[in-house]
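Summary for the steering committee. One of the milestones for this cycle was to obtain a three-dimensional model of the protein with magnesium ion bound, which we needed before selecting residues for the alanine scan. The sequence and ligand used are listed below.
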Amino acid sequence: MDIKNRNLEFNNMPQHIAIIMDGNGRWAKKRLLPRTMGHREGMKSIKRIVEACMELKIQVLTVFAFSTENWRRPQNEVSYLMDLLIEFLNKELQEMHENDIRIKILGDFSSLPKNCVDSIEHALQLTSENQKMTFNLAINYGGRTEILQAVKRLGQEISEGRINTSDISEEVFSSYLYTNTMPDPDLLIRTAGELRLSNFLLWQIAYTELWITDVTWPEFTKEHLLQAITEYQKRDRRFGGLSHQ
Ligand code: IPE
Ligand code: IPE
Ligand code: MG
């Protein structure tokens, strides 16, 4: 599949694409495999989509890898996911760094197993100056938790007299979220068909275009990404105003 042969409008690309990578378990179940094999296969999709986004010059790619609610899963699945995360970082870090990708984590990773925290900190530090694309991994991420930690930090700063309540604009508030000064997602993709947000980026997706496919995450290819972007480009983003057409 060649991106150049596609009728994409290069002046109307999403700056920030966010993805709820869902359906690993269903992919595995359909093939009579353990759920963990679905997660392993899903890791290959992450690599594919990072590469595709680089090729498309997307500025920010955010993927939802583990939610604050995913701790409710069986312990063996949770630890498999954590190990997979380390494996992914160990395998892909060097290449991502060479490709000038900056890795960021959305979520509180301090409570993850020690080897995860170490891998993450190494990846963050190594890639912190990179420019071409920001790759956000949402791990132990919950939209409500993110908003609450912002409120708490702001409350602290108010009580210490470092900021006035009247100065808290939407922009200031946004800068206290994990996404800091990054642009909000323009396009949110959810695989495996569920019609919900599952506590993802609640503040940031106020005006994001949603694209949901029944395709599961392990099956998701560059072709599906291009389909999503093509449909995104047909949307009339009014932001509450009137159409330009
Ligand atoms: C998404 O796949 C991966 C994570 C949530 C970590 P699931 O594991 O949720 O797959 P389904 O929804 O059970 O098919
Ligand atoms: C959302 O998927 C979280 C991630 C993709 C990491 P879930 O599978 O956890 O979502 P629900 O439980 O179906 O809402
Ligand atoms: Mg799921």
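Key point for the committee: Residues 75-98 form the longest helix (24 residues).
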